[in-house]
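On to our target:
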Amino acid sequence: MPDAILEQAARHGVALEMRGAVAVVSLRRPAKRNALNDAIVAALRDVFQHLPMEAKAAVIEGEGEHFCAGLDLSELKERDAGEGMHHSRSWHVALDAVQYGRVPVIAALHGAVVGGGLELASASHIRVADETTFYALPEGTRGIFVGGGGSVRIPKLIGVARMTDMMLTGRVYNAQDGERLGFAQYLVPEGQSLDKAVELATRIATNAPLTNYALMHALPRIAEQPSDHGFLTEALMASIAQSAPEAKDRVRAFLEGKAAKVRKSS
């Protein structure tokens, strides 16, 4: 990653640290509960678009007591319809860089995962929450609407009806209910979400890169295609993935008894 991008991101409250093959991206605005402003969103875009080549997976986390409390309302400006649309689309580009970038992204959640913070979390591929985590979409009670891709991503996690309820009523979900509904795939004790996320990312980083890429880019699109289209896309992706030299080496190692077999977890 160019040093200029890293330095500018740091000035706006986004830091990157390499832990082996894992890029840990941190929101560092704890006094504002890591609320998102345009500068932070642009910094996230730049960081995820220019991750170091040695990064094979990434973790996104928030410094302090909260992951991200959403949009910094102090920056909310009066915009006409055209300006508002372009502003929303700039967030879409940034969060697409998270979801459809080069490497899988795990979000380490704690405290507030609210509004734009939930939109950011939903752009990641795996979410690990600790017991302090809570989820909300207060935009509906503030007279605004989600604009960072939440109306597309969040219903895929919890369904349209639950998102509608959250926005209409201001309902807040705690960590336990959030895991049950699908906001997070893992729930860990307080203070352990970052360690668990890095553990998962370290494991994911050892996968064949083309398989990881297929899971990030092909699988979500296959899920939305008609069955006959999905089957064809799956066949094409499977043939490409298994033709990679690394895939052939891994299958050969398994057949020769050199790779670990799947076992029931304890």
User: Anything to note?
Assistant: The mean pLDDT is 93. The chain has two domains: 3-204, 209-255.
